[in-house]
Amino acid sequence: MIHASSNIDPHGSDTIIRSVPSPVPSSLLAWWFQCGKTEAQQEQQQQDPLGPTGCLEVIYGIALHYLHETLDHIALVLLAYSVLCVVLYRVMFHRATGGSRLGRWLVRRSHLPPCSRALLVTAHPDDEVMFFGPTILELRRRQCRVFVLCLSEGNHDRKGAVRRQELWDACESMGVRPEDITLVNATHLQDDPTAEWRAVTIANQLLRQLESLDAELLITFDKEGISGHPNHSAIYYATASLCLSGMIPNNCKVLTLETVNLCRKYLSIFDLPATLLLSTNWVILSWKARRAVQNAMRLHNSQMVWFRKLYIIFSRYMVINSLREINKSDVEFEILDT
């Protein structure tokens, strides 16, 4: 910008022409805002820098400065949290020395209640892998015999026969014997989010299986059902009714798979610190075991739509299961709360 000075030059010239560098706007938006002004507006701003327009620019500059600082801090926190998750995960499954002392301590705390026979109750084919895959693999690693009870054949899309075979294939890939899989095909337990599954009907199925199998561990959904599916929640309320009535065998413990919020649900291994801090029973798979669960899920080929392909990549339930043991007092509190 060129300014003319009215001072008399000692050498006789009337004016002195001097160049003053234009201030460079601090951002592209500020530069665009400056260019949009007329010369009259710019002169007015120079004469009255604290006018309405000047105040707005000052506020904008301060807000932009603090926004940049806040984003920098958030980025650093996220980076530190990611590094912490990766380090924890590597420590737990460090192979060079058979696992570090900290890693062995973490794995020791992550064990499920000891048992030789466990019953897993699900609502539809693919639930056993989509949600309970890590638990099944951990139980099989401990030589626990896993029985799977699926209460419907998943015929909502008229693919019941296909999904039945997919259930057997997926369970066998995770070490479950074919004879240990039971699929219920009842008219009053159909795969339908709008259909009401009566708790007494489900409870009768559960009790029959528990008594015939002599299971020491019963595993199913919690009251939120992980995905919010009403068929999942119905299984919890049937299990809760058995707990309240004292009909669960004394030697059988009940574990429910914890529902987490949407953010945690798709963090994969980055949900590790929250799981370690907030859960009492949990299973965390190695990366190799995680691939085994993913491959088992892919055997449910009829369900492999685009969002489930994303699910098996990002979902924590492919690598982490956190479970809670429930008893009569817990059930009473949850039902009253509901």
Automatic annotation (TrEMBL):
Family designation: Belongs to the PIGL family.
GO molecular function terms listed in the Swiss-Prot or TrEMBL record: N-acetylglucosaminylphosphatidylinositol deacetylase activity
Protein's name in the database: N-acetylglucosaminylphosphatidylinositol deacetylase
SUPFAM superfamilies the record matches: LmbE-like
EC number, UniProt record: 3.5.1.89
InterPro entries: GlcNAc_PI_deacetylase-related (IPR003737), LmbE-like_dom_sf (IPR024078)
Key words of the record: Membrane, Transmembrane, Transmembrane helix
Top EC class of this enzyme: hydrolase
Source species, domain of life: Eukaryota
